[in-house]
Amino acid sequence: MKNLLDYSMEEISAWMKENGESAFRAKQVFSWIYNNVWEFENMKNLPKALINKLKENFYIGIPEIVAEYNSTTDETKKILFAFQDKNIIESVIMKYNYGNTICISTQVGCRMGCKFCASTGIPFVRNLTSGEIVEQILAVEQDNNIRISNVVFMGIGEPLNNYNNVVNAIRIINNPK
To answer: End-to-end distance of the chain based on CA atoms, in angstroms?
Structure first.
């Protein structure tokens, strides 16, 4: 099974066509996902046959929040997420008068060894998929009932060492749908 969050709307559209579905169904699925509907059965305007195909081929992965740490001086919050493989990463929400910013991770651990960075002490395990990068935003928005307006790629890991997945995540995040 594949995480549907790894797919851009264009890739979902291509999958729809390859599987005998109308391409416009991709927009419907994409819209549901990015309006916090993550169970295929709850995507009410999809035919039952398509829902079954989606369930047979995909899951929508949202990481489990395992800990939250609130700043004592401002509204900054660090959130630790566990993925299905039990690897843990962190994201940080920073609230400003112009919106909410999230600092997200792109890797589990880091191999760079930068002396100034706390991630240096976390051994590299693997790159995050584009879906796992996007999942951090979706989980934070839902759990905190906020809208993220700015994304910073400087959590755990070196974004350019996970270039393809980071670029695909940026494409997904910036899709107007």
So the answer is: 24
**Token digits of residue 28:** 């419907």
Calpha distance 39→61 (Å, rounded): 10
Cα gap 66→171, rounded to integer Å: 28
Q: Name residues whose C-beta falls within 8 Å of residue 166's C-beta, 6 or more positions apart in sequence.
A: 106, 130, 133, 153, 159, 160
Summarised one tens digit per residue, pLDDT across range 125-147 is 999 999 999 999 999 999 999 99
CA distance 111 to 125: 9
The candidate with the shortest Cα–Cα distance to 159, out of 103, 121, 116, 115, is 103
Q: Which of 114, 111, 140 is nearest to 124 (CA)?
A: 111
Query: 45-104, pLDDT tens digit by residue?
Result: 999 999 999 999 999 988 999 999 999 999 899 999 999 899 999 999 999 999 999 999
What is the value of pTM for the model shown?
0.91
